[in-house]
Amino acid sequence: MFSSLTPWLREQRLDFHENIAIGSWLHFKIGGKVSLLVTCNSPAQLTACLKKVIVEKIPYLLIGGGSNIVFSDGLTRAVVLLYQGTAKKTAAAKILGGRALQVDGHVKNQLFLSWCAAHGVGGLEFLSGIPGTMGGAAAVNAGAFGQSLADVLLGADIVDKRGNMAAVDAGYFAFTYRGSRFKLGNEAIVSLRLKFHAEKKRVVAGKIKANLEYRLANHPSYRLHSAGCFFKNPLIRGAKQSAGQIIETCGLKGLAVGGMSVADTHANFLIHSGGATFKELERLEQKIKTAVKARTGISLEREVIYVSARGEKY
Which CATH class is domain 235-307? Predict the structure, then answer.
């Protein structure tokens, strides 16, 4: 099934690897092998690959920066399309007119913010320090500092389940807290249209710097292998509560299973110190959820995406 795709990939001059360990492409650095990993560096390459695998009914999934996802141990029998571009800051996005801009889904969040600072584009500084790509950020409705992608999205160009290109509005995303129809689905976000407001360049740069400094002071080092906040902040009596504070209150900082542990600096970060397996991550997750439920009655919900051996996100 997967080997039949490789001649076409060679014809298209696309970079691909067969039966390769996926961990190197993920922030968590956890996961076994995947049947086929294909790198798509542009919307055109991504669209062509999606049409091919959809027409031939080959199981596939799309990842961007790999910051909020982890694969199971063993072999994942699917084509993994890695949508990571090589855009430069000067061409990371473009202003469409009025107060709208367009950015391709493969653009890294921090590169996009550098472009915003250079062009006096305000209102998107909340993305500071969030790893990954803009498409991935939209798929999980990423956010911080009281804002999220749902607040600024106008629309997107996507590839739907049939392999067709389509322009959709923000309502199509069916946004939820840290989620959308794209988070666990297989439709692909090719590019985004976002609203912004004009601002002085130094003001935008200053807000980005302040947000980054806050994260650096309050979160574990970005040099550590983590997927960021692991659990969603639960809604309690109509107000969101910090999952990290809840876990800390339960005395779980430093709790470890194999190569996985709860961070000492922020209890909603799980750290991979080396050699950890997906099973160990699952066990640590369950230990935290069980302890929190027993001590507080609160049921924590995972924010990070898991991928099964069949290539299904859950």
Answer: alpha beta
Contact in structure between 183 and 313 (CB atoms under 8 Å): yes
Cα atoms found within 13 Å of the Cα of residue 191, Cβ hemisphere only: 18
Residue limits of CATH 3.30.465.10 in the chain: 89-218
Q: Mean pLDDT of all residues in the chain?
A: 95
CATH architecture under which domain 3-83 falls: 2-Layer Sandwich (3.30)
Closest by Cα among 159, 104, 160 to 134: 104
Catalytic hit among 229, 250, 280, 285: 229
Known active-site residue 303: yes
Annotation says 229 is catalytic: yes
Per-residue pLDDT of 73-91, as tens digits, reads 999 999 999 998 766 777 8
The token pair that represents 208 in the structure block = 């980005």
Q: What is the pLDDT of residues 88-141, one digit of tens each?
A: 777 889 999 889 999 999 999 999 999 999 999 999 999 999 999 999 999 999
89-218 has which CATH code? 3.30.465.10
The CA distances from residue 92 to 83, 196, 242, in Å, are: 15, 15, 33
Q: Where in the chain is the domain with CATH 3.30.43.10?
A: 3-83
Exposed/middle/buried for 286, CB within 10 Å: 0-12, 13-18, 19+?
exposed
Catalytic residue among 40, 116, 125, 178: 178
Catalytic residue among 125, 280, 285, 303: 303
Residue 82 C-alpha from the chain's centroid = 12
